[in-house]
Write a structure and sequence with these properties.
2 domains; 8-stranded mixed beta sheet
Length: 415
């Protein structure tokens, strides 16, 4: 059974919500975060990317950076830019992209559910990134950013949310600079809160869609706090962490593509010759070519787009991991031909979220920065859930969810 817990959120006043709300810490580097925050003193980036208020070039993992996060968080509370709700509530957070709106329930997930695998994961975490977020949670004593969860859709939950949204004006309602709409309601109806908590208790599992490092950090710091507390009861706020839960049938996973710096010493012709052992190759010319289905890839090389269709025998559709296009590309191209053995550490490969479009792949190859680009057909939510349920782990950089959750609409304090 999955835990959904109401909590006393820390939230910006309605007139500041758009300015406080920021993109997540991990989609911006420090330079981009400085530019995005600009002269907006209200941006949550001052807390989640606090190096923007320190000299350029500072070590991102220095104590000074974490101390700045703590100082800035206190400043936001002192100035009334983040204000605690009077009671424990659940919240609805909806996002609109390309005319489609998805509705998530904001509440706390349970540290125990994470440790007991009620919350299912599909990605490995990197220890350095996990430790960074753990330090951030420790110094702020809060979950500053929500994690992005999914659950198998439940009709009654959909009805409750739809009825509430219809009957109440949102607390926040704005379009961000990227064109995505963000809409936020506070559920003050105690009966509805109780019913939602009960409905979640009937779910066998929830799933981490996006934010594995933040999820791990939040749960592990909660576990640290309980171990350090001789009077631990299990009811303390640190036993829970901030999550937005979306029904699986409302979510869209978009492609996550690859660009590679060189051809491992091969000429373009020799590279294509090697590819032909695993793929049916079709030249597509200079117009952008998008993969048409599972096991079809697009490749951009030397100013030309190609269609690559994996030959039978290069994949296993009965294997949850073996059927993934990221697996095919790794086993048939990246490892044997290009000698890229570890996607996590090899500096010759980079990853481009499909939200940037395939033109971004073309641009990076045409500039000479990269030698070749591959675009992949996106993974489905069904594949993700099957993999998580089976206890499997996806290869790195397999899924890209869009739109990203805005950080700062609600914060969860651990005390």
């Amino acid at each position: 059974m999955a835990v959904l817990k109401p909590f006393k959120g820390l939230r910006p006043p309605a007139e500041l919500a758009r300015q406080v709300a920021s993109r997540p810490y991990d989609v911006l580097n420090s330079r981009e975060a400085r530019a995005e925050a600009g002269d907006n003193k209200y941006s949550l980036l001052h807390i989640i990317k606090p190096e923007i208020d320190l000299p350029e070039g500072i070590n991102l993992y220095s104590e000074e950076v974490y101390t700045k996060a703590q100082t800035n968080f206190q400043l936001f509370k002192d100035n009334g830019w983040l204000v605690p709700d009077e009671e424990e509530y659940l919240y609805i957070y909806a996002q609109t992209m390309n005319g489609k709106t998805q509705y998530g329930i904001v509440g706390c997930a349970s540290v125990d559910d994470y440790l007991n695998n009620v919350i299912k994961k599909h990605e490995l975490t990197r220890k350095d990134k996990e430790e960074d977020r753990k330090k951030h949670v420790r110094v702020t004593n809060a979950n500053m950013e929500p994690v992005f969860f999914s659950y198998p859709a439940v009709d009654r939950i959909d009805v409750l949310v739809a009825d509430y949204v219809k009957a109440h004006d949102p607390e926040y309602d704005f379009t961000a600079e990227d064109g995505f709409g963000h809409h936020f309601w506070v559920i003050r109806d105690r009966q509805m809160i109780g019913e939602l908590v009960e409905l979640f208790a009937q779910l066998p599992s929830t799933y981490v869609a996006d934010g594995h490092h933040r999820t791990a950090a939040a749960a592990l710091v909660g576990d640290e706090k309980r171990r350090a507390n001789p009077n631990h009861t299990g009811q303390e706020e640190y036993n829970y962490f901030l999550a937005v839960h979306f029904p699986d049938n409302q979510l869209t996973i978009i492609d996550y593509n690859r660009v590679i710096k060189d051809l491992n010493g091969l000429s373009a012709d020799a590279f294509i010759q090697q590819l032909s052992q695993s793929f049916a190759i079709e030249e597509k010319g200079t117009e952008v070519y998008k993969p048409e289905g599972l096991h079809n890839f697009s490749m951009y090389l030397d100013g030309t787009w190609y269609s690559l269709t994996a030959l039978e025998g290069t994949y296993d559709d009965n294997d949850a991991i073996g059927t993934l296009d990221v697996t095919i590309l790794t086993h048939q191209v990246l490892d044997p031909i290009l000698n890229i053995k570890d996607l996590r550490t090899d500096k010759r490969i980079d990853f481009v979220g499909g939200i940037r479009g395939l033109e971004e792949l073309k641009k990076r190859v045409d500039s000479g920065e990269m030698a070749v680009a591959f675009a992949l057909y996106p993974v489905t939510m069904k594949q993700l859930i099957n993999i998580a349920d089976g206890g499997h782990i996806m290869p790195p950089k397999t899924t890209w969810f869009e739109p990203k959750l805005r950080s700062g609409l609600v914060v969860h304090a651990l005390d």
